[in-house]
Amino acid sequence: MELLEYVTGLLEGTLGSPWLWVIVFLVSGLDALLPFMPSETTVITVAVLIGTDFAQLALLALIAALGAWLGDCLGYTVGAAAGPRALARLQRGPDGVRRYEWAKIQVRRNAVLLILAARYLPGGRVASGLANGSLGYPPRKFVPLDALGAGIWAVYSVLIGLVGGAAFADEPEKGLLLSFALGLLLVAAIEIGRRVRVRILTRRRAAAGTSDNGVRVEP
């Protein structure tokens, strides 16, 4: 609780200062390469502190989305640049070739879900950018999809902070706790949905007699 109060006080001290937006932009962007950066926590905290100033909340969502999008594009670029070396190691030997083909198929098959939803899971943005970049997912598809995902994420984070700030206008720490609880519930729901989806797809492939890499399994 003391740490929460410290972070709240630190960000509260930057309200009304351009440095607040610089912090939001940088943290939202760097989270795509450094998974320990608290991008969602920062956006939610600032939203709680702003309260019901909708113009400021809209600006917060815009800056957070822009930072997240540019950070993801940077992660994609890093993945694309490192791709040849990483893929060369991955494809060593028959097993390596099979792993590479499996990974490529998974990215191609689940790219939209990976780009839009992975950002809500710990380290998901790092994995999404690097995987899509290194495995050659087309940038013409990645860039607009990621812009959509970053926008949805920013609005979601701001709305969660708004709920907490509105519920506890005079007690921002309690508002933060409520907002974080709502965020955790959403992340849990996404993870449960992902696992259910994987099980359903696995059963369908088993029924169709195909393996995860799309190769038909002969009885």
Automatic annotation (TrEMBL):
Places the protein is found: Cell membrane
GO cellular component, one term: plasma membrane
Residue span, VTT domain: 38-161
TM region(s), chain numbering: 19-36, 43-70, 147-169, 175-193
Keyword terms: Cell membrane, Membrane, Transmembrane, Transmembrane helix
Pfam families linked: VTT_dom
Keyword Transmembrane helix among record annotations: yes
Annotated membrane topology: Multi-pass membrane protein
Keyword S-adenosyl-L-methionine: no
Recorded superkingdom: Bacteria
Family statement drawn from the similarity comment of this UniProt entry: Belongs to the DedA family.
PANTHER family registered for this protein in UniProt: INNER MEMBRANE PROTEIN DEDA-RELATED, INNER MEMBRANE PROTEIN YABI
Protein name: VTT domain-containing protein
Species for this entry: Amycolatopsis japonica
